[in-house]
Design brief:
4 helices; 11-stranded antiparallel β-sheet; globular; two-stranded antiparallel ribbon; Thiol Ester Dehydrase, Chain A; mainly beta
């Protein structure tokens, strides 16, 4: 934290919202940080977000900084961007795609809050985005159940960011050469609030590659095809082999 930075709050990432076992899910973390930015935000994760302890949030000019002691965990800034959304699949198509979720066969982080197959209903989101034949996207259905953080009957924005996270990883996983990917940067827009109990369709699609950086887009829609939110992401391919 620089001398010019002004402390503006703290965030805590409960263990329920992990990605890897010992750090926060990237989308959930980015959503917590984005709450301190007016309008659309782009969040960069600088190190694995630690669980179950207060992280200091400060503002330095137009940047929001999150520190764990002396260590910079994340930073965010306002951004302006647009994205071309693919046509959403129907809930029936998305459910069929989820049956082919690659994470059922191999998953680096099987306890991930969003996409971990080890998580039970009402605990994790169990968002299992599988390939949609002929469409170039991965897709799944998911229910915004009452166990999720909410206010006045609407799911909290950090959960919308979570829904927009992991489909992007599974959209690019075939380009990662059997190595895990972790979220590096995420920009997202919450277009419509999500009522508790909604059945949703989430999709992800690959965009480009630059060495160990993989780029993807994601979106989450109502069952009727209206967009609730969308995102762009940068994924970093880790160097160690993926765990089975």
């Amino acid at each position: 934290m620089t001398d010019a930075a002004e402390r503006i709050g703290t965030i805590v990432i409960p263990r329920r919202f992990c990605g890897p076992d010992d750090s926060g899910n990237g989308g959930y973390t980015c959503g917590l940080v984005a709450a301190y930015v007016d309008g659309d935000a782009e969040v960069v994760l600088r190190r694995p977000p630690p669980l179950d302890r207060p992280l200091v949030v400060s503002r330095d000019e137009n940047r929001v900084l999150v520190h764990d002691g002396p260590h910079l965990v994340a930073e965010a800034a306002p951004t302006r961007w647009e994205i071309d959304l693919p046509q959403p699949p129907s809930p029936q198509e998305a459910s069929a795609a989820a049956e082919h979720y690659a994470g059922f066969r191999r998953h680096a982080f099987p306890n991930c809050f969003v996409c971990g197959p080890n998580r039970t209903p009402g605990d994790g989101l169990r968002l299992f985005a599988g390939s949609l034949p002929g469409r170039g996207v991965v897709a799944a259905t998911v229910v915004a159940d009452a166990s999720l953080p909410s206010s006045q009957g609407l799911i909290n924005d950090e959960i919308v960011w979570s829904l927009l996270d992991c489909p992007g990883a599974w959209a690019v996983e075939r380009h990662a050469e059997d190595r895990p990917v972790v979220l590096g940067t995420m920009a997202a827009r919450v277009a419509r609030p999500i009522p508790v109990g909604s059945r949703l369709v989430a999709i992800g699609w690959p965009q480009s590659r630059d060495g160990r950086k993989l780029f993807s887009g994601t979106a989450v829609f109502s069952a009727e095809g209206l967009p609730h939110g969308y995102a762009r992401q940068t994924w970093i391919v880790l160097t160690q082999p993926e765990r089975a």
